[in-house]
Amino acid sequence: MDLQIGDLLYKGKAKDVYQTNDPELVIIKFRDDITAGDGKKKDKLTKKGYYNSIISSKFFELLETSRVKTQYIKLLEPGLMLSHRLDMLPLEIIIRNIAAGSLVRKFPFKSRQEFEPPIIQIDYKSDEYHDPMLNDDIILALNLSTQEELKRIRAITLRINEVLKGFLKDKDIILTDFKIEYGKNYRGEIVLGDEISPDTCRLWDAQTFDVLDKDLFRKGESNVMEAYQQVASRILNSEDKNKWNLNF
Ligand SMILES: Nc1ncnc2c1ncn2[C@@H]1O[C@H](COP(=O)(O)OP(=O)(O)O)[C@@H](O)[C@H]1O
Ligand SMILES: [Mg+2]
To answer: Residue 168: what pLDDT?
Structure first.
């Protein structure tokens, strides 16, 4: 059966999700839109969708080889990711190796303080309620997931962190923290969805501590795309670069 793109299922702040003629498959389109501060700060950055989709697929491929179940099937072309359709849980799973961002604003942690083991934080993914932080009792009372699923989500998240942290360390990048989203596939299994990119991770140069992620946009810096390109350049091997015609 030839794959055909179908109706738009969902238009988010940075990506569109399209149905396909196979009910189990969706196409995720990575757009150039970038937002911060609860959607209040907005812009369009040329080629952001292109780079984020390539970076995300690299991470998903790496996780698949490390036996983490993800939505990922393949990148049809830069910007368009063929994925398993998931029933998304309205949870933002954040894992932190080093204190930064809202954690330092909300709690008396020292900036750059290291966490071993890492801290897992779960926020309610809701534009209406402005993504408040959850705890297990609230998650269960709101029926957002079960205790069993939460346990599984925590275990997979720690595994993902270990895989990505080690991979990035070799590329001289510190994985400070990141946000992921899970959904359930048609079998009811918990599967990693959405994206893993400089939009959703804090990535610091291991030598200079230069920021290589969306914090540059939050701070109004002009070199956002240079940083995203730098991440792509460091994590892709020459075979990947040839495949996507990247010459850097
Ligand atoms: N595999 C998937 N199947 C269905 N929906 C998904 C999948 N992966 C991600 N999504 C959802 O698609 C949307 C992606 O677009 P995005 O711009 O990130 O939206 P948002 O503004 O809600 O964060 C998100 O709401 C995300 O939960
Ligand atoms: Mg999103």
So the answer is: 99
Structure tokens at 86: 């998931």
| Residue 117 parent element (H or E) | strand 114-124
Token couple for 49:
């969708």
Residue type, 79: G
pLDDT at 1 over 90: no
Ligand 1 atom at minimal distance to the Cα of residue 35: 21
CATH code of the domain containing 22:
3.30.200.20
54 lines ligand 1 (CB under 6 A): no
State the Cα–Cα distance between residues 75 and 57, nearest whole angstrom. Answer: 7
One-letter amino acid for residue 29 of the chain: K
Q: Say if ligand 1 is within 6 A of residue 197 CB.
A: no
Is the predicted pLDDT of residue 33 greater than 90, yes or no? yes
Q: For residue range 127-181, what is the model confidence (pLDDT) as tens digits?
A: 999 999 999 999 999 999 999 999 999 999 999 999 999 999 999 999 999 999 9
> Is residue 196 domain-shared with residue 178, that is, in the same domain?
yes
Do 181 and 236 lie in one domain? The reply is no
Report the distance separating Cα 193 and Cα 190, nearest Å: 9
Full residue range of the structural domain in which residue 61 is found: 5-86+225-243
Q: How confident is the model at residue 246 (pLDDT cuts 50, 70, 90)?
A: confident
Residues 81 and 117 in one domain: no
Q: Residues 91, 125: contact at Cβ < 8 Å? A: yes
